[in-house]
Amino acid sequence: MLEDTFSELEQVRLKKLRTLEAAGIDPYPTRAEQTHTSQEAIEAFIQVESQPDASPIQVTVAGRIRSLRPMGKLTFAHIQDRDGKLQLFFRVNDLGEEKMAELSAYYDLGDFIQASGTLFRTKRGEVSLQVDDFKMLAKALRPLPAAKDEVVDGEIVRHAVLSDPETRYRQRYVDLAVNPDVQEIFKIRSATVRALQKFLDDHGFIEVETPILQPIYGGAAAKPFVTHHNQLHQDLYLRISFELYLKRLLVGGLERVYEIGRDFRNEGVSYKHNPEFTQLEFYWAYADYLMVMDFTEQMVAFAAEKVLGTTVVNFNGHEINLAPPWRRVDMRQAILEAIDIDIELNPTAESLQAALEARQIKHKPGMTRGKLIDALIGDFLEPNFIQPTFLCNYPRDISPLAKSIPGNPSVVERFEGFVGGMELCNAFTELNNPLDQEQRFIEMGRAYADDDEEQHPMDDDFVNALSYGMPPAGGFGIGVDRLVMLFTGRRSIREVILFPHLRSQDAEGQG
């Protein structure tokens, strides 16, 4: 039981709760009132305090108690709500002996309180609430980790006890309660999603929803999570991408569509990977990857301006400017400059492996040519793309859904966008020839082993959809979590996901 886990101090809080209940006071009342947030109350007072004939500002506020300072017949407290903090001033002359005794006997740091009264400014200049009534809204049985604020060089520096990353991610509710900067991360995340939506909406795109449970997974190179529908006796997959469903909508005549939602990939975790993550994908009829490139840099810059007020961000020790134009680099030329190997002169996996071995570059045996090139990108190019860079023109065999460059069937019109040394987005000129698409799926099946997580399964219904005619189009996907990492300067994806996936604590104990 929960009570069995309480410490001695928590048992004291529990006793206070029981005493409240015995006195007929509900420590978790059903109704609450809040006429102003802390910031709204302060702003309302400031607007009228210089007017000599203004009526006193009466407000009711609510929030979590962050400080309590009894001083005889007076008590000062601070409460915190979504907008910030407000000082409360309790005086026995206003409340009476019995009500003041209730405050000292039952209230602790972390409790939620509702307080009503009149706003005034203290001798020290702080706008405060002179309380004439208050009540408990929620009794906190466990204390929050203490936090200490101090002024250093004129700025407030917070020292929070809850700093261990593992504890912060497992108990995000506590992390948010004691670390205001963490709250700011998720306010920025919410604003980022809204900014992306606005940009796309303003350019004629419509937001849609596609299935999360799919009978056939596809649209990306990743291993899916598998589940089972009991009633239908059918295995299903959590989607790894929205792509194949969104392109079906192009066939149906919805020419500009996008979706923002969760994808799920049964793969390793890292500072930039989580098993479930948020993706934005859009598909744009009558566009190609060059048009999408222009559109991408405009969209990211728009979101940065909207959310941060600037296109300049600081990430991993680098000052990065997201404003257009972004650098554009041909993959063949970039690899040639990085390791002195011309991939065009090595058209097979065997010849490319030999070239790598000649330069003593390690690689996994048995990889396809495309996967070898992809590994070279990750090892030699991606870490050096700090300022926004589009890497263009990818091998056909790792891009089964992209259209080949005219006159060069082995290379497709695809780009990936890199910022801060990590991949941010991926885009194609979309393949819309159903016969070619079917052949690509067949080739992928031959190229990869049955247990290869990057094998693309044949999707007959998608090929069938293409056979009805899909307009030429540009397609695009961006990791929203990684964009928020850039906007907030956070190096780990776990910092920008409210509830990141973690190894179970039982499993950690066994390890």
From TrEMBL:
Subcellular location: Cytoplasm
Cofactor, how bound (note): Binds 3 Mg(2+) ions per subunit.
Protein keywords: Aminoacyl-tRNA synthetase, ATP-binding, Cytoplasm, Ligase, Magnesium, Metal-binding, Nucleotide-binding, Protein biosynthesis
Name under which the protein is recorded: Lysine--tRNA ligase
Keyword Ligase on entry: yes
Catalytic activity: tRNA(Lys) + L-lysine + ATP = L-lysyl-tRNA(Lys) + AMP + diphosphate
Signal peptide positions on this chain: none
Record organism: Candidatus Brevifilum fermentans
GO biological process, one term: lysyl-tRNA aminoacylation
Binding of Mg(2+) 1, residues: 416, 423
Main location: cytoplasm
Family: Belongs to the class-II aminoacyl-tRNA synthetase family.
Cofactors (names): Mg(2+)
Coiled coil start-end: none
Subunit composition and interactions: Homodimer.
Domain Aminoacyl-transfer RNA synthetases class-II family profile: 186-500
PANTHER family, per the entry: LYSINE--TRNA LIGASE, CHLOROPLASTIC_MITOCHONDRIAL, LYSYL-TRNA SYNTHETASE
GO cellular component entries: cytosol
Residues that, per the record, bind Mg(2+) 2: 423
Highest taxon, organism lineage: Bacteria
Main enzyme class: ligase
Alphabetical list of InterPro entries matching this protein: Aa-tRNA-synt_II, aa-tRNA-synth_II, aa-tRNA-synth_II/BPL/LPL, Lys-tRNA-ligase_II, Lys-tRNA-ligase_II_N, Lys-tRNA-synth_II_C, NA-bd_OB-fold, NA-bd_OB_tRNA
Gene responsible for this protein: lysS
EC numbers for this chain: 6.1.1.6
Pfam families, sorted: tRNA-synt_2, tRNA_anti-codon
